[in-house]
Amino acid sequence: MTSLKKLLPALVISGLVAVGCGTTKQQPTTTTETTPTIQERVDKKANELADLKGATVESVTLEDGTIALKVTFDSGILFGFNKTDLGDEAKDSLKELVDEIEDMEDARIRVYGHTDIVGSAEVNQRVSTERAKKVAAFLVDKGIEASRIEAEGLSFNHPVADNSTEAGRAKNRRVEIYVIPAQ
């Protein structure tokens, strides 16, 4: 017993004996506030932009699984037939979009121009590219950093409606803007 009494201080110091030391396991702290998910943030933004003139706004999941805000502007609101200059109504709608997404400073933006099938592939490619670039330039002019924006013309290669009818061709003439928050 005396040898144990002599060893006990050494064992306690080395941490091998923890009898009666009163240690308790600390419980992790929890908060009542939760950070919204990317899906929730994008859904909220889509609701805020539901009344954007000349546009359809929705939350989408891209092919790679990325969640994005998709804003599709009917070409008629942005551009005259076969034109690439933004009208006043277009500028108002785009300005409203910029105002609504300014709190998404970490988001990347993709602008895609689309055309119908009327005309040559070369002309449609040029028109769709110029339209995408004009929209991108306007976004930059209103304060969005150019490094965050990609603009691409997709010509008539991605129709959303039947190009054999005027109504279908009208739907295919559009500009799509994807606002992609940091994932």
Give the tags.
5 strands, 6 helices, 60s Ribosomal Protein L30, Chain: A, alpha+beta
- End-to-end Cα distance, whole Å, is 64 Å
The helix/strand series, from N terminus to C terminus, equals HHEEHHEHEHE
Total of helices: 6
Give the helix/strand class. alpha+beta
Q: Strand tally, please?
A: 5
The profile of the biggest β sheet is:
5 strands, mixed
- The best one-word shape is globular
CATH class: Alpha Beta
The side-by-side strand order for the widest beta sheet comes to 1-2-5-3-4
Ranges where pLDDT stays below 50 over 5 or more residues in a row are 10-21
Any idea what the radius of gyration is?
Answer: 29 Å
- Looking at CATH, which topology would you report? 60s Ribosomal Protein L30, Chain: A
CATH superfamily: OmpA-like domain
Tell me the helix content.
Answer: 25-40%
Which whole number gives the mean pLDDT? 85
| Beta-strand percentage range | 15-25%
How many distinct folded domains? 1
Tell me what the CATH architecture is. Answer: 2-Layer Sandwich
Describe the structure in brief.
This protein is α+β, with helices and mostly antiparallel strands and 183 residues long.
Architecture overview:
By secondary structure, the protein is α+β, with helices and mostly antiparallel strands. It has six helices and five strands; from the N terminus they run ααββααβαβαβ. Strands 1-2-5-3-4 form a five-stranded mixed β-sheet. The longest helix has 21 residues, at 121-141. The protein is globular, with a radius of gyration of 29 Å.
